[in-house]
Task: inverse folding
């Protein structure tokens, strides 16, 4: 009997082991496909899930035997983590940071650009040559927050240094639904991509044409922005007590077509303007009402102020002027198919000459744009827009236009194309933004290559290429300003 | 002989008992997947984390990003969610905000706020399997891949893990053939994920540290390796809170333009 008993016991043990092993490998993995090294393919348990406990001895079971934790020591921690709560160390670190005084961020940027052919209207080929230091800081109290961004600039073309205050803004939330933001600030709204209908905040076309970072397309405003936010309709009002015009092309660095001279002129025939500049008298007000419909956004706009770039002329003495302007508009933007679609229109009421009978004040216009953007490949997006400027009183315009000036078309059609491709883990960005007008037969191409060398350093180069069949069209007049540029930036 | 028979019977019973006991313990695949999805992406009614991301390329160059994520569950079904991502560094993206309304069954809505231009852009890119801020993590790794997108199969149960093989229902929409997830049995935390294409594992994600925060076991260190490019990204959660009470209106244009500072420190 003894040998028999031993046999059965060992048989049972073997049988049980086999069955356990068989169960462990049970789900679908045929023996042999799963090598002995199975346990090595199994991930190690991360810190915090260790040690692996046998069933029945899991941590929940253990904890029930422990005394209940007094409040303040909760939550219960798993073994191996000791008594230090997870967030403690970092809390003290951030507390330290909070006590420290103002922190400065910003960048140092050097860039240069030049015309590719010489321009008879300009003495210098260089279009850009500058070194810029930007410093940013902020400070917050309970409901008040102050931000500062300032640029110190040495301009090698003008051979002078200057300060460009980008932002000095106070944000105050007196009640939960209200944001009041007062001071110097960059303001943007509307749905267009590098086309602006209802965004009548100042643009810096000189920066845009010269190869500065695209953020400099927006010039700061001295304004108060009041936002009231609610479920039905959000309301934003921007009040600018003293007119902030665009930083428009004056001929100083970039040549333009002068209808008075009938040719492209530059540094010697710069635009002289009369700017409305009385505080509270020459003010601007811009309003936006908007709400979401799902993820789409519907917006209504209103503006009362002036044409932002010169929109007319006075003859004696010859000065460019900024006629009064009101704009009413609307926009919608949202997902459509696999991309984002937007529609926007605006009525430009040039009400100092509604009839269009004065040749020296811009006609009223209807402006419209439709855009669509989507991904067309891996980290590759394309955007296309159609844009129209429709002149209201074309007959009157034609009739009163001085004989020496070339008439524009009633409609100015414009197509834009944006292509953006990201490579090398998004560190290399190839982009092209192109404007082309079939009615003006002109175009403006903005190719750019930008590479992030590391977290601090970025280099980029690109071009501003203007082409036109005629000298007097919107982009055609800038043909001699075609330039290439390169820049390097270290951010901190 | 009778004794032998009794022994056999006993052995059979034992085996049967063990079998049925094991069978009862194992939850269904759907249950495992749902619990893992919950543990990884939906714990608490909302969550806030300060995140440090280190992206290391094949040459060993390291790029770092630091940002806050404010996550809010928009329903009780572990489906709709909102994410608000506020960047602290690197310097060139400081104060930039990336906002997502995550949907199940249709494309997410995404927006970007560029502070220097004061511009809010709705983003056209819908591909969830592209790099998140240049890292080896995809958008989908950060916000979660819908469990409806794959067929799930329990291929193995080990002492610590349920091993689930996931095969995409629409293979054309993804770059992998399948992926295997090792789900921790007691916490349902997905500890390791291996993406496979043509029989090769080419992308591996691993939870390296788990802390219990506000009662929720939470992955606080996560690594994703791209074996093809040799790059890897480590995400460390420096600070995590649950049930913060983040209001729904934080996920709107207003708060992209005016960062809700009370939640970002």
Result:
């Amino acid at each position: 009997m003894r040998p028999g008993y031993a046999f059965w016991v060992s048989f049972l043990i073997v049988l049980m082991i086999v069955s356990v092993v068989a169960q462990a490998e049970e789900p679908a993995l045929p023996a042999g496909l799963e090598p002995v090294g199975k346990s090595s393919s199994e991930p190690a348990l991360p810190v915090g899930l260790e040690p692996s406990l046998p069933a029945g001895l899991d941590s929940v079971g253990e904890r029930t035997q422990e005394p209940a934790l007094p409040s303040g020591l909760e939550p219960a921690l798993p073994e191996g983590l000791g008594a230090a709560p997870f967030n403690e160390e970092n809390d003290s670190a951030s507390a330290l940071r909070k006590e420290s005084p103002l922190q400065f961020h910003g960048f140092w940027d050097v860039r240069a650009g030049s015309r590719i052919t010489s321009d008879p209207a300009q003495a210098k080929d260089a279009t850009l040559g500058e070194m810029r230091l930007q410093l940013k800081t902020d400070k917050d109290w309970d409901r008040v927050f102050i931000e500062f961004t300032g640029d110190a600039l040495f301009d090698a073309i003008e051979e002078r240094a200057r300060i460009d205050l980008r932002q000095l803004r106070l944000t105050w939330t007196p009640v939960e639904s209200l944001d009041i933001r007062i001071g110097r600030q960059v303001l943007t709204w509307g749905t267009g991509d590098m086309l602006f209908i209802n965004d009548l905040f100042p643009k810096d076309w000189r920066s845009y044409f010269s190869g500065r970072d695209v953020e400099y397309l927006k010039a700061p405003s001295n304004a108060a922005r009041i936002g009231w936010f609610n479920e039905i309709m959000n309301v934003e009002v921007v009040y600018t007590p003293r007119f902030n015009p665009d930083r428009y092309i004056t001929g100083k660095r970039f040549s333009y077509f002068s209808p008075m001279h009938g040719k492209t002129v530059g540094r010697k025939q710069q635009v002289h303007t009369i700017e409305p500049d009385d505080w509270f008298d020459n003010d601007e007000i811009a309003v936006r009402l908007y709400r979401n419909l799902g993820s789409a956004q519907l917006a209504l706009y209103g503006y009362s102020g002036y044409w932002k770039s010169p929109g007319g002329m006075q003859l004696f003495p010859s000065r460019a002027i900024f006629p009064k302007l009101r704009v009413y508009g609307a926009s919608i933007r949202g997902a459509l198919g696999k991309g984002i679609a937007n529609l926007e229109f605006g009525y430009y009421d040039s009400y100092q000459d509604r009839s269009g009978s004065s040749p020296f004040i811009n006609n009223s216009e209807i402006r419209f744009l439709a855009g669509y953007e989507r991904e067309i490949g891996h980290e590759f997006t394309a955007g296309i827009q159609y844009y129209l400027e429709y002149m209201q009183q074309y007959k009157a315009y034609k009739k009163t236009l001085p004989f020496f000036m070339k008439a524009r078309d009633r409609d100015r059609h414009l197509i834009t194309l944006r292509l953006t491709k990201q490579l090398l883990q998004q560190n290399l960005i190839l982009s092209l933004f192109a404007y082309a007008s079939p009615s003006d037969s002109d175009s403006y191409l903005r190719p750019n290559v930008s590479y992030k060398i590391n977290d601090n350093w970025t280099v980029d180069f690109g071009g501003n290429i203007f082409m036109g069949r005629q000298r007097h069209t919107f982009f055609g007049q800038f043909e001699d300003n075609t330039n290439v540029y390169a820049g390097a930036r270290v951010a901190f | 002989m009778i004794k032998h028979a009794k022994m056999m019977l006993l052995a059979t019973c034992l085996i049967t008992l063990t079998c049925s006991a094991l069978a009862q313990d194992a939850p269904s695949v759907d249950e495992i997947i749902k619990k893992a999805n919950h543990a990884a992406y939906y714990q608490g009614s909302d969550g806030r984390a300060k995140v440090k991301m280190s992206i290391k390329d094949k040459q060993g160059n390291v790029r770092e990003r630091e940002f806050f994520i404010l996550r809010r569950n928009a329903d009780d079904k572990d489906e709709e969610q909102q994410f608000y991502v506020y960047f602290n560094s690197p310097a060139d993206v400081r104060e930039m905000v990336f906002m997502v309304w995550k949907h199940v069954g249709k494309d997410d809505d995404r927006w970007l706020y560029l502070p220097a231009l004061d511009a809010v852009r709705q983003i056209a890119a819908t591909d969830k399997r592209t790099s998140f801020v240049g890292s080896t993590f995809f958008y989908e790794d950060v916000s979660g891949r819908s469990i409806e997108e794959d067929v799930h199969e329990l291929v193995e149960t080990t002492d610590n893990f349920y091993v689930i093989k996931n095969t995409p229902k629409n293979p054309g929409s993804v770059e992998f053939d399948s992926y295997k997830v090792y789900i921790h049995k007691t916490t349902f935390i997905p500890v390791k994920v291996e993406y496979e294409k043509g029989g090769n594992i080419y992308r591996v994600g691993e939870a390296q540290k788990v802390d219990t925060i506000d009662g929720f076991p939470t992955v606080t260190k996560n690594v994703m390796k791209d074996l093809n490019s040799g790059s890897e990204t480590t995400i460390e959660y420096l600070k995590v809170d649950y049930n913060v009470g983040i209001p729904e209106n934080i996920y709107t244009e207003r708060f992209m333009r005016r960062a809700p500072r009370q939640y970002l420190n």
Summary: Chain B has a mean pLDDT of 90. Chain B has one domain: 43-260. DSSP finds four helices and 13 strands in chain B. Chain B touches chain A through 84 residues (CB under 8 Å).
